[in-house]
Structures
1.
Amino acid sequence: MRIVVKLGTSTIAHPTGRLNVRRMELLCKVLSDIKNAGHQVILVSSGAIGMGAGKLGLTEKPSDIPGKQAAAAIGQCELMYVYDELFGHYHHTVAQLLITGYDIENQHHRTNIENTLQRLLDFGALPVINENDTVATEEIQIGDNDTLSAVVATLAKADMLVLMSDIEGLYDKNPKTHPDAKLISHVPAITDEVMALAGGAGSAFGTGGMETKLRAGRMVNQVGIPMIITNGDRPELLYDVVAGRPVGTLFGERKETV
Ligand code: GLU
């Protein structure tokens, strides 16, 4: 199974913006194990801006573009250092890909990304992808990693996209304000009524919310790729994902090979 896993900032960093060491250790362990079992994994990792801000001792993300780009430049190094170190414990090789909206729209660049991804997977490497925040201006910005991960899943012809976030999945009401909200385990199609269930908001360091996740789901479902939203608090849920057991909210239908 070829699986694209998107890790949100709230999953890999504390609210201070500093690395969540225990979570990251567990995530890299589970992902390494899943690779050892023969699956192909592509990571889309957020956290560059948040971790850059954390490293600089800022209490929130910079609001201006050069500030965000500077924070991303600092945080992206930290991120890759950590992935290299943690996956290295399990003898896995990571590869960094930083892409912008321009690269997706430009046929030549897109083909290069597809070919590189394919070759990295053939090599048994683990691609770690983020937006190239230091060069992405508004016109060429993808903007959020939910969308980026949907693009990556499509380019990589993945069997599954998994968004790991600070929420269990999609609820029938906002669980933060309605304690009786129920988790929806399966959404066969992301209709306008389903879209209406998305609130706004995210965390202080993250970018996306439920809306960007549902839009990502629509993109991948259109090309036959199912998506799961699950809680990044519990990395071991990824074992259930690859085993085909119900976890979080499934959007679309699992492929038969999965
Ligand atoms: N590229 C941003 C970062 O690494 C994250 C965007 C997002 O979280 O959606 O900080």
2.
Amino acid sequence: MSDNIRRILVVNAGSSSLKFTLFDMQNESVLAKGQVERIGMDGSLFTFESAKAKFKQAPTVAPDHTAALNTVCAALVDPEKGCLSSITEINAVGHRIVHGGAKYTTPVRVDETVIEGIRELIPMAPLHNPGAIQGIVGCMAVLPDVPHVTVFDTAFHQTMPPESYLYGLPKDIAGKYGIRKYGFHGTSHHFITVRASEVLGIPLDKLNIITCHLGNGSSISAVKNGKVLDTSMGMTPLAGVLMGTRCGDMDPAVVVFLAKQGYTPDQINDMMNKKGGILALGNTGSSDMRELCDAALSGTNPEAKTALDRLIHSYVMYIGGYYALLGRVDAIILTGGIGENSYEARGALLDRLGGLGVIPDDARNREFRFGKEGRISADGSTLPVYVLPTNEELMIARETYGIACK
Ligand code: AMP
């Protein structure tokens, strides 16, 4: 542990929000966390939690991300609520960036060129990268003297070979616009891969696993020798399995068909990203897995049951395909809000994986929830299934620590 770098602030900024976690890297403990919401709007909302205090403050004045971080810093050094005696005790800042394209394969220290690089990728992540840039600029204004590091959600997937990431499109067009598979949730897949290596006692460079980050947004990855071989999300986080409000994979010609019916690109985008998935199919009026499972298992909502079946079907398709790609699989790892908690969805999934050597264990499946880590398959399974809670913030702090100490 470097004496100079100890406390790392992890920031996840959107265009109107800034979430933060302050870590003490001596023991990887959380000193404080919270968020500022409604940045730039009337009545911003500030939520803060430390060992000394937990509060919600509304309205808070936060016209921009600089003001939002100033509010956070004031609370961090407040003698009654905070955990620092001076803001100079923050040694580095790690920023979560959704899209790093093919350019950023590892975390990098921020400079003007990096900010420009993230800006160039805005067409790929129009909802995420602009807010992230506002967050970086705002945080650098408040903490100008410490290293700032960007950690990209796409980076862990950049080990994919062309046979995984290429789309069958004319090369000049694909090359001109950077159209290919990038993958997302990389920080989470990375965290659980490292954790799986520890839990299974298999060195990272010999570890073959299928990592399933199942939440409101979901992605499944094939990890071979500790590196991503393939992943279910694509150029954007819309591809892959069925999700809360996203349609996942479908015939791309549907987009052309809808455009020819007169729907605009924004309308089609809205349908696929915000009105699709569980919300579209479940007949519960919600994208929430708990409501879908309650409705599906009550026996009164056949559409909910079909939606749950469709969801599990999409998980099984990817897991089965990745099993074939990997050849040898040491374990399936589940994480994310659904993977960590929904024993109904997990039970339905494990019931479908018998052909791969998975034997479900209902008692274990019910036990390992709400942050508990453990194996949910039966002892006789030739392919074990583990629940390993993810911690993207800690992964960003570790990566930031690694870069800031160089
Ligand atoms: P995430 O995007 O990772 O926060 O995951 C959100 C999803 O996890 C939602 O579909 C939730 O319904 C689901 N989820 C969270 N907690 C539970 C729980 N206790 N039981 C079942 N599903 C849950």
